[in-house]
Amino acid sequence: MTAEITIARSGAAQVIRFNRPEKKNALRSEMYAAMRTALIEGDADPAIAAHIFIGCEGIFTAGSDISEFASRADGNTALSDHVQAFIRHLPHVDKPMIAAVDGLAVGIGTTLLFHCDLAYATPAATFRTPFLDLGLVPEAGSSLIAPRLMGHARAFEMLVMGGVFDAERALGAGLINGVVDAGELEATALAAAAKLAAKPPEALAAARKLLRGDPGEVAAQIDTEIDIFAERLSSPEAREAFAAFFEKRAPNFKRG
Fold this sequence. Notes:
This protein is an alpha/beta fold. It has helices at about 30-45, 65-75, 80-90, 110, 140-150, 150-160, 165-170, 180-195, 200-210, 215-235, 235-245, and strands at about 5-10, 15-20, 50-55, 95-100, 105, 120, 125-130, 165, 180. The radius of gyration is 18 Å and the shape is globular. The protein starts with a strand and ends in a 9-residue tail after the last helix. The mean pLDDT is about 95.
């Protein structure tokens, strides 16, 4: 485990907290490993009814640590094994997942929500997936789930155009269930988990499976995304995008 992900029990909820505020809760490989372990152990614990993802200090997460991506664009293995394992595990989580979002929700901070069953956000929350700006492609099954949830036009705006969705737009698009004040965010998520804990557990599990559908379909899309993502990560476009990011300049993408 890593201190940058804290795991706590609150009633029947397992609270998975991003705890790297000095880096805007950007996720390193070890953090992905800790989250996957927590999901597996929570699913196996009959006292846990739901998993809650939450950030700290007014930030959900700035997404994957871009310095790790940049090092892999220079020729290392594509996505780390821990990142791949976490993303591939998402369709196979057995118990409900709840997101409580305040501030930035970038990249996986947004695509994770497509796997959550309930999500709440503060008025300060913003959702953005700048994959294409980095020469990459969407991940975590978002290229399949987002158009189904939001419709093609809004999914294209979010995943391809990199448009920023505020909390109200995210609510209208069906990405979140409600907008609450920052001081009420965690309590709202915990209350939702408590309501789920009061349901008959076998019926809850069966109903969730019916609503989420075949996990194999999402898993297959994730595999395809990871393959393309790996190709893109070592592409000239990605190398230029990362160089421009760190040099604080506009990228120069060659056409034709």
